[in-house]
Structure formats: structure tokens, C-alpha cells
Write a structure and sequence with these properties.
By secondary structure, the protein is α+β, with helices and mostly antiparallel strands. Helix content is about 40%, strand content about 10%. It is built from eight helices and four strands; from the N terminus they run βαββαβαααααα. Strands 2-3-1-4 form a four-stranded antiparallel sheet, covered by helices on one side.
Length: about 220
């Protein structure tokens, strides 16, 4: 189970995601996607949160969040997943059949430098990476589509860094295997994503030191 953050999370940018039980499709129609966007927007009224990016895929979603207060991230994600689960069951007439998500959300903090751009691209490129579209901006259920089409289905907040002029080209460009592997390891373990010094400082601040330790039994000497 992902570690719960024990210290102040205010001011850090986080990548957060959750997956459906058994990786089943929970977004089966346009109405399912629209309903989740509505809950996402409402959640920000109940538990204030700066939303920097997102991508909703058939069986999971990615969010890029920038909380201000210490408890904002946990409260926002709790309301979002609980409310979406309740409404999903009500709409599909499956109330009482159990959770639709695997469990508690996963998250990791992101350094506000080039690592932030890498994670933002990772989020907005998801549909392209999954082979759902030919270009990232063609995926209707993402922050990239919203920003290009200037729609207000879900409002987005200003980034902590300026958006590069060549952002669209960067998102659709080729990711390196090393970059993908590093981000995916942060997803799996909740490991801070940034420079080595920042990783250690942030892990200590948030009580995430174990995410930097190698897994498995120590080698026998």
C-alpha cells in the first residue's frame, strides 16, 4: 500500500493517479468521462486545489496537482474518489457491488524545474503512448486538449514555471527509456522525482526515505 505522507505537503507539486479494480474500464462512454470531469471540478470547490494538468484514460487517470495546505492533497483525493465511486455506481445501477478503484491513490512530489516539464509531458502524452490517438492533443479527455481548444469544461491553474513555446512539439516528441523508467519508478514507489539532492531533502521532509532505498533483501556477504 502506498505510504501516507506524514509531514507538510503544502507547496509541493504532485503527480497523482488511481486505477480501476482489475484494470477494468470505468470510462466506457462519453458520459462517463464528462461525469468524472464534473466531479473533478466540484472537488476543487470542496477541497481547494490547483489543477495543473490531467489525462483520463479508459481504466485510470493522471492528475498534476499543486496543493497549498498540508492536508489539501489527501482531502481532495479522498473526496474525488469517494464521490466519483458513488456517482458511478448510481449511474450504472451497481450500488453495493464494491469499490471501482484498486485502493488509495498513488502520488509522488515533483521538483519545480525541468523535472516538472518531464512529468507534465508524461501526463499529457498518456493517450498517445497508449495508442489511443495519433497526436496527444487529439485526446478529448486531457488538459492538453482543453488548453488548445480553449474550453472551460475543467479550469486549469497557472503553472509554477512558464509553459515553453514549443510545448506541443515537446509533448509529441519521443521520450527516452531512461526518463520513462525514472517516472514509472516514482509512480510505483511514491519516490520524489527530481535531482538527487532535492530527492533526499524532500524524502526527509515528507517521511518518504524508504522510497529511496533499494528493494529486496540485502546481499549476503
Amino acid at each position: 500500500m502506498p505510504r501516507r505522507l506524514r509531514f507538510s505537503t503544502g507547496g509541493y507539486v504532485f503527480h497523482a493517479l488511481n486505477r480501476a479494480v482489475g484494470r477494468e474500464k470505468i470510462f466506457q462512454s462519453e458520459g462517463d468521462y464528462v461525469a468524472f470531469e464534473r466531479v473533478l471540478q466540484e472537488a476543487r470547490q470542496v477541497a481547494p486545489m490547483r489543477l495543473l494538468g490531467f489525462c483520463i484514460l479508459p481504466n485510470h487517470w493522471h492528475l498534476l496537482l499543486w496543493p497549498e495546505g498540508d492536508e489539501d492533497l489527501s482531502e481532495f483525493m479522498r473526496w474525488l474518489t469517494v464521490t466519483h465511486t458513488q456517482r458511478w455506481h448510481a449511474y450504472h445501477k451497481t450500488s453495493g457491488t464494491g469499490p471501482i478503484y484498486q485502493g488509495r491513490f498513488k502520488s509522488f512530489p515533483v521538483e519545480q524545474d525541468d523535472h516538472f516539464y518531464a512529468v507534465s509531458r508524461y501526463v499529457e502524452r498518456n493517450a498517445l503512448r497508449a495508442g489511443l490517438v495519433r497526436r496527444s492533443e487529439m485526446w478529448r479527455w486531457s488538459s492538453l486538449w482543453l488548453s488548445i481548444n480553449e474550453r472551460l469544461d475543467v479550469s486549469l491553474d497557472a503553472w509554477p514555471l512558464p509553459r515553453p513555446a514549443h510545448w506541443l512539439q515537446y509533448v509529441n516528441g519521443v521520450e527516452t527509456e531512461a526518463e520513462l523508467a525514472a517516472i514509472r519508478e516514482s509512480v510505483r514507489r511514491g519516490r520524489p522525482f527530481g535531482s538527487a539532492v532535492w530527492q533526499r531533502q524532500t524524502a526527509r521532509q515528507l517521511g518518504l526515505e524508504s522510497t529511496l532505498q533499494p528493494r529486496g533483501r540485502p546481499r549476503r556477504i
